[in-house]
Amino acid sequence: MTATTEQVHEQKAWYWYDWANSAFVTTTAAVLFAPYLTAVAEQAACGRSTDEDAGYKCTTDLHVLGLDVSAGSLVFYLVTASTILSALVLPIVGAVADRSGRKPRLLGGFAWAGSLMAALMFLVAGSNWQLGAVLLVLATLCLGASLVVYDALLVEVADPDDRDRVSSRGWALGYLGGGLLLAANFVLLTVMSDNTELAVRISLLSAGIWWAVFTIIPVRGIRSRPPVNPVTEQGGLVQASFGQLWRTLKDLRRYPVTLTFLVAYLFYNDGIQTVIYAASVYGEKELGFEKSTVLLAFLVVQFVGIGGALLFGRVAQVRGAYRVILAGLFIWLVVVVGGWLVPNENLPLFLLLAVAIGVVLGGTQALSRSFYSQLIPRGREAEYFSLYQACERGTSWIGTLVFGLVHQWADSYRPALLALMLLFVVGIVLLLRVDARRGIEEAGNPLPSVV
């Protein structure tokens, strides 16, 4: 089915939120903030900067709520905490969004709140890791809430046969936007090499501003629509949303294929998100690369990811999204093993690994989003996407918890990285049990031309 002029206009506006939030996802969440907050936490734990004395290694832990927490594991525990919080909050966000006739404005509200938290990260300095911890949790939560609404809007702006293409293009534009800001920050870090801390803080501020400004485009460019087939519940919007959520959790048993895919996605996307979160810390703390080198590797991921997302989208039009996702997960297994084997300070192999991640990263995530949209009942997209979003970008918890625990026990990031293979293996096994055609039919959706 050919998209109408209005649909094309809305799709173009929809793409821009990938461009907007990818600045935070890339510059802040994936590259700069994790190692920066780790360094701030280490300074707080040691009482001095770990860079002051070559060869000096602090063994003092942070004391958090009466527990000893390794400073090197702090970020991963924070992501775990934010995901547990997301599991409580995001389903309610989805239920509210499904009943709202102003989804674009709801998207903007969550995005602008998150961008404010991201911009305030500029204030994290010295040994003030507590402020950084609070801002990271709040920004991640707001990002997840905005993506619940954003993903649900995909169903409104694209027909079933168009969703793989539209989702992949949005992801590709996100890589371009995130990559451009990351490149600018790379230049800034190079120019301000004598004051890296300030350069990092300015970069964090730029990501928050970028996220806020470009969110204006989808908020203004996508029209509001009345709810479709809302479930009848008693009470006001919030009370009815809780009732709808409870009904959805019970009704999920009626869609066993959807449930199986959701659990599979929980595991394999958890692995993907943990690899992305851990990559900057792994590159700096384990492989011994400078911050600017790690940033260069992420630039490679970003720009290769543009082509990777578009390539996966085109292959899916011929082979079907399900098969392409499955193939991508086997490539992820190779990536994890490759990361474990990369020798310290071996730049060519590190960059080759970045190319491999770029090829497969956007494609698997973009197609997972569009494939899942085919498996959920019409009118309840935001609520179902809230369950999906609980294990989406920056809200994983099993992988980050495993990564943090293994690092704390082994005092090394290499076994922690290798442990993530388990998440991909479990995801593949569960995905093999998904019958795509049956799942789409169970949800009452029309079958696309290629399943």
UniProtKB/TrEMBL annotation:
<dbReference type="InterPro" id="IPR020846">
    <property type="entry name" value="MFS_dom"/>
</dbReference>
<feature type="transmembrane region" description="Helical">
    <location>
        <begin position="257"/>
        <end position="282"/>
    </location>
</feature>
<dbReference type="InterPro" id="IPR024671">
    <property type="entry name" value="Atg22-like"/>
</dbReference>
<feature type="transmembrane region" description="Helical">
    <location>
        <begin position="131"/>
        <end position="150"/>
    </location>
</feature>
<feature type="transmembrane region" description="Helical">
    <location>
        <begin position="106"/>
        <end position="125"/>
    </location>
</feature>
<dbReference type="InterPro" id="IPR050495">
    <property type="entry name" value="ATG22/LtaA_families"/>
</dbReference>
<feature type="transmembrane region" description="Helical">
    <location>
        <begin position="294"/>
        <end position="312"/>
    </location>
</feature>
<protein>
    <submittedName>
        <fullName>MFS transporter</fullName>
    </submittedName>
</protein>
<dbReference type="InterPro" id="IPR036259">
    <property type="entry name" value="MFS_trans_sf"/>
</dbReference>
<dbReference type="Pfam" id="PF11700">
    <property type="entry name" value="ATG22"/>
</dbReference>
<feature type="domain" description="Major facilitator superfamily (MFS) profile">
    <location>
        <begin position="23"/>
        <end position="439"/>
    </location>
</feature>
<feature type="transmembrane region" description="Helical">
    <location>
        <begin position="393"/>
        <end position="410"/>
    </location>
</feature>
<keyword id="KW-1133">Transmembrane helix</keyword>
<keyword id="KW-0472">Membrane</keyword>
<keyword id="KW-0813">Transport</keyword>
<feature type="transmembrane region" description="Helical">
    <location>
        <begin position="324"/>
        <end position="343"/>
    </location>
</feature>
<feature type="transmembrane region" description="Helical">
    <location>
        <begin position="349"/>
        <end position="372"/>
    </location>
</feature>
<keyword id="KW-0812">Transmembrane</keyword>
<feature type="transmembrane region" description="Helical">
    <location>
        <begin position="416"/>
        <end position="434"/>
    </location>
</feature>
<feature type="transmembrane region" description="Helical">
    <location>
        <begin position="198"/>
        <end position="217"/>
    </location>
</feature>
<feature type="transmembrane region" description="Helical">
    <location>
        <begin position="171"/>
        <end position="192"/>
    </location>
</feature>
<feature type="transmembrane region" description="Helical">
    <location>
        <begin position="74"/>
        <end position="94"/>
    </location>
</feature>
